[in-house]
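Bump. Still looking for cytochrome-c oxidase structure tokens.
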Amino acid sequence: MSPLTLWPATASEQAARIDMLFTGLLVISGAILLLVAGLLLVLCARYRRGSAAPRGDLPDFIRRDVEIGWTAATLFLALFLFWWAGATQLRASDPPAGALEVHVVAKQWMWKTRYPNGAREINALHAPRGEAMRLMMTSQDVIHSFFVPAFRLKQDVLPGRFTEMWFRATKPGEYRLFCAEFCGTDHARMGGTVTVMEPEDFARWVAAQPQEEDLPGEGAALFTALGCSGCHAAASAVHAPVLAGVYGRMVHLADGRTVRADEAYLRDSILQPKRDVVVGYEPIMPSFDGLVDEADLQRLVAYLQSLRGEAAR
Ligand code: CUA
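Sorry for the wait, here they are.
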């Protein structure tokens, strides 16, 4: 960006519309500022102490017509700006059907992206030029905010729910990604790169990414990445069940039932840990509903199943 350029790079369809809105607001409010400040200065000079300017009541036409005039003008201007901003925002928030869907998971302090074919990245997003891309975003811990200045896009990313955002990139290149919500020690370093590629290049790139075949291995990585290993470890200060060998075992629940720890049980324990509390443990585990998708659940369960051998050792 040259120092003479007013705006950051523009690389998405809505960037131009948002810049126009911003410029419009700047020009209109600048004009109002000049008018009001100018009148103020003129009146200060004209009616300064000791000046000979005539004083007395304002003429009737000022008290009535002009007053009505500027009240109405301000009202219509405000309504016009409301409509303009609202229309721009609505257009920017409604993803077209068939948009390429990418999952984004934020955590202290990184961005994790996942493409429909299973390819994954950290602190990076690749997008095809000219095609709509929809981001389904959630956070594993605190509130973050996904901010790409070149796209003029910023969206809060919240734990426990999905927020979405879409864009159509217009110019190949590399653009900065920031976290725009203070989220802890390394907030300032929580960023990455958005790479916009020609559609053919993107298709080639995404197909060349490693596909996930090793479910237990992926699950083990998730187990660490999601923080499960922080509590479910023999050495952990938190009193949580050690999961090696849990698969297939009978589990005693606080409500008196005894169930087998099969796939469904493990899945429910991740999504609704407070429902089936295990005897002897506090119900302190948070739900991972919304933080892991079905594919992640499959991986986690596959990992837990793979721990059978370890327990037997
Ligand atoms: Cu994440 Cu700031």
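Residues 28 and 74 are 11 Å apart (CA to CA).

Edit: fixed formatting.
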